[in-house]
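Sequence only, no structure available. Ideas?
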Amino acid sequence: MTTVLVVDDDPTVREVVATYLRRDGLDVLEAADGPAALAADADAEPDLVVLDLMLPGLDGLEVFRRLRARRGGVPVVMLTARGDEADRVLGLEVGADDYVAKPFSPRELVLRIQALLRRSAPSATPAEVLTDGDLVIDTRARTVTRGGDALQLTAREFDLLRHLVATAGTVWSRTELMNDVWGWEYGDESTVTVHVRRLREKVEAEPSKPRRLVTVWGVGYRWDPDGA
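Reply:
I predicted one. C-alpha cells follow.
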C-alpha cells in the first residue's frame, strides 16, 4: 500500500489531511515535529511526505534537507501558513515538488498528492531511454545521467526534463507546462520558473548561459537537442 507521511505540529491539520488521504485508500503516518518525522521516514520510508515548513525545534527546511540527503528522490509537498511569493519560491528553490499555503482545501491537496504519486511511480511499460548528447534519461527507472554521472532530480524536475527532451524543438508556455507536467489547470506559474532554473543548474555546462533549456522570450521554454 502507498504510504504518505504527514508532518505538522497542528493535530487538527494532521487529522484532516490523514482522513482525506485514508479515504483515498492511502496508508498514513503522522508526526508532530522534525525529529519524529525523520524517525518515521527512516523506519517506514514513505512514498511521499507532506511537510509543514514551520515546525517547532527542527524546522521544516532542515527536516527537508535531511530527508533529501538520505532519500534524494522522495516526493515532498510543503505546507506553510505563510502564503507570500517569497515563501513559495523558497520551498521550491530548496527542491520541494509542490507547495500548498494554508488555509488550503484538503481535497485539492489530496488531488495534488495523487497526481505527484502517479508521476513519480515507476512505469509498468517497457523501459524507454531518451538520449541527448551526454544526457541519458531512463523513463522507466526514472534516472538521469550526464556524462555518465547520475543526476539527483526531484520527481517534478524529472517529469519536466522528460517532457522537454521528448518534445525537443517545441516551445512550451509556462501555462502549458503547468498543465502537462504538473497536471494543474490553474496555479502559480513561478513554480515552473523555479524548476527551470533548478534544472539548468543540473543539465547545463553554464546555467547562466543555457544552450539546451532555452528561454523563448515572451513565449516560454524550449529544449534544443545537444546544445544546438
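The chain is about 40% helix and 20% strand.
Hope that gets you unstuck.
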